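Thread: Newbie trying to understand structure tokens

Hi all, I'm a second-year student working on a class project, and my supervisor (Dr. K.) asked me to get a predicted structure for one chain before our next meeting. I've only ever worked with sequences, so writing a 3D structure as a token string is new to me. If someone could post the tokens and maybe explain what I'm looking at, I'd be very grateful. Here's the chain:
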Amino acid sequence: MTEKTRDKVQERFGVAFALRVADPDLCQDGADLEIHPDSSREGRFLIRSKTGESAAAILDSNGIWLAALARSGMIRLNGRVRNLQADTVFLDGEGRLTRLGTSAITSRKLPMNPQEVLHDMVLAAYKKAVRYTDRIMLSAVYENLTAMVRNKPVLPETHLLLALIKSRLDALSNGGNGSFAKQIGEHLKKIEIGQPVHSHSLSLFPLLGSWEEKSRYVLLEEGLAAGTVAVTETSEAGQVPYLLLRNDGDLPVLLPEGAILKGEKQNRVINTTILVAAKSVFTVPVSCVEQGRWHRSRHGFQADSHAPSSLRSKKMRAVQESRAFRGTAESNQSEVWREVAFAMDSLNVRSNTGSMSDAYERRRVDLDVLRRNLTPPPQALGVVMCRNNRIVGMDLFDSSQTFSKVWPRLADGYLIEALNDAPCDQAVNASSVESFLSDIPQFSRRADPTLGIGTEFNIQGNQMVGTGVLYEEAVCHLCAFAGSASGL
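---
Reply by user tm_fold:
Sure, no problem. This is what the structure looks like when written as tokens:
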């Protein structure tokens, strides 16, 4: 291979793992990925702390192809902890190509079977893609390739090529992120933290500002009520992680992350904030929040409460992992169901179909009383919510009118987690809220590709996760949650 060819090879790539460990502190300073010495355990890695102690083991969809390549000497792996949350460690792994790996992935041979034919097609695209400097063009290539191989048996080397392309795409996306983070920061500088309102175990810090208010979009609940927006199953058979939205209106429609939709074959929650173009049809990524039903209760969906903040936080982190490494905005559905079940058990609510909406209906009187005691001022654009002695999260919109329309449903998700709390005095001060807001820009990254219109962004840090959409130089919606949120 010539030096010119070698310069075009993307030599590093990322992989991510989420695993439960008995002692998360072992991984606090980083960790190493080692192949399990038992060769019968295909795809399993050991996690060793920097002090050499065995902390955990991994077995997931990434592990199989990574192990095959590591055993053959084509890659070397290392890891570091990106986030500690309860007993779960989120481990970022970095892979590096060895000289053998570089040679293997850039040489082509006559394909002998369908897997090799598929690999040959991905390799041809990879050789062109790593020379691209246009983020949008490379994003389109990556989307097409991941769609082409989805649900098909592929070679470990093919997985590697896709990981290398994704790494190149991340490098292009983050290369201009300084100006993007500055843009988010400039928006947040216009926000003032109002006087807190405290009740029970909750404190509400209103977010005030003087942003230009104009009709950029309609809310999903407004479009549904007006009949200009319809949400249905994707087909008669339906798909749990997706719904179909038709927007016949003249304005885009805003789908805030965390909003629950009630109806059709089962209730769902929106996975990430999306702005859907006017006069368009769009497939919406969602999660199920009603495990025990799969039959039509009504045609179409209606807007319901927002999901609990702890569910939203965990769902968002899983969605971001899925988008980064599988190219889909899907959650960990089992984790979502566990969160719903935990919430209902904590509230002593029973539901024949395991519906989160049933919990809100059964505790409606309590929720309404608490919400009346936690009323934001009419000029508020959003709120930061605190519970006991910690910040839970925040939601911010570009208009006080929009926020006032969303607040009754949005509030349910924050308030329901506190119904069983003992009353306490306000413990979080404005300086802590200001620090929380000031951390958001540095952890904000453009989402590639953006699912709808505008500029979608993710917020991802050691103790923070969130999402949002910029459109016409305004933050249509931004939500962020503290990583230590522990639910009910």
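A couple of things are worth pointing out once you decode it. The longest strand covers residues 75-85. The longest helix spans residues 156-175. Feel free to ask follow-ups in this thread.
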